[in-house]
Amino acid sequence: MSVNEQMVSTIVQEVMAKMQIAADASNAKGVFKDMNEAIEAAKVAQKYVAKMSMDQREKIITGIRNKTIESAEILARMAVEETGMGNVGHKILKHQLVAEKTPGTEDIKTTAWSGDRGLTLVEMGPFGVIGAITPTTNPSETIICNTIGMLAGGNTVVFNPHPAAIKTSLYAINMINEASVEAGGPDNIATTVEKPTLDSSGVMMKHKDIPLIAATGGPGVVTAVLSSGKRGIGAGAGNPPALVDETADLKKAAEDIVNGCTFDNNLPCIAEKEVVALDEIADELMHYMVAEQGCYMASAEEQEKLTATVLQNGRLNRKCVGRDAKTLLGMIGVTVPDNIRCIIFEGEKEHPLIAEELMMPILGIVRASNFEDGVEKAVWLEHGNRHSAHIHSKNVDRITEYARALDTAILVKNGPSYAALGFGGEGYCTFTIASRTGEGLTSAKSFTKRRRCVMTDSLCIR
């Protein structure tokens, strides 16, 4: 056996050993049988964290970042295998992104002012133990992102992950606690239960030691959190439209829209879910999508079959969510080459495959008679979620008008949707976008409370 083969064998053994953690929850750090036990363990750890210096917290966060990069492929493959959703290569990129661009302790800042009557400080303090609910779409990414931000603010966190992604979630939580212990920090900075359920979520939301709950998921879970009587950060659904006008670079717009729509098979809530194109450029835009961007134009008959397959009894067919275009077409008996990555079609805004948030690479295109009509249709399609919207235009006045009309937490101009997360665009990364409760793209400071400290008639030396 060569040295290279030995290295490969060693790596494979390490990967298999780590993946076994997820299969055997009893071996995982931070995992408990009962939610009350998980909360108590996180509470004990938070007392330790609260006394740590910012440098000590940052040392743990650095360890989490490093382990996330090291385990990016493992976590990506685990998530796709467990949930059946998404794209391994894209999930690797998402883990690298969350490791490199999620804000840490640098996001925690003190403001101060002095005057004739003394000195005042306003500091960001921890809530304590934060409760967090995480989705199947980005299970480990959300857990890692939340933990980095919450720990930076001096908190610990107890998770109630989606049951359909529990193995991936347990692996991420174990990894986070390993990083803490190796950096000299406490165990149980992130905790959970072996078998998360609606009941365990209810215990978490009602627990006296949980002052803040962060929910990343659909409208139902966000509504439940906001009805809990606790402070809530709600990251809910979106149905982001992409408006294209006649001033846009149409070849680039086609590329950006398809790249954004197909990233991780359209699982990100910020991804382009439908296109509103001005009538005069719609045909040219669709031409570039088909000829250059691997799009398949679905016929009227195929649209009907897709609708019947994707939407069943008025609800999304979970077997279709996060699947690639070739798989979706195969479900209706259409065979396409491997380069097909997106299904497009033209329809009215009320078409069920356009009006519904699908989370799969099916992209309906709605014609608009003029820009004003386009804005009106985009506003309708976004359904008041105030989550994300995108526009391709070189007219600054139109971009401004669109931004004001949509009033979303995220607006991407002349780029793919994922630029909003710092991937090919400026800014930090997050996987909890709280459009509904107003925090927008959450970061460490979102998980802190403001505290004012006032000293009268002293320490002003002007």
UniProtKB/TrEMBL annotation:
Origin: domain of life: Bacteria
Q: Which SUPFAM superfamilies match?
A: ALDH-like
Which controlled-vocabulary keywords does the entry list?
NAD, Oxidoreductase
The parts of the chain that form a coiled coil are: none
**InterPro entries linked to this entry:** Acetald_propionald_DH-rel, Ald_DH/histidinol_DH, Ald_DH_C, Ald_DH_N, Aldehyde_DH_dom
Does the UniProt entry include the keyword Transferase? no
Aldehyde dehydrogenase domain location, by residue? 32-426
Q: Name one Pfam family in it.
A: Aldedh
Which named protein is this? Aldehyde dehydrogenase EutE
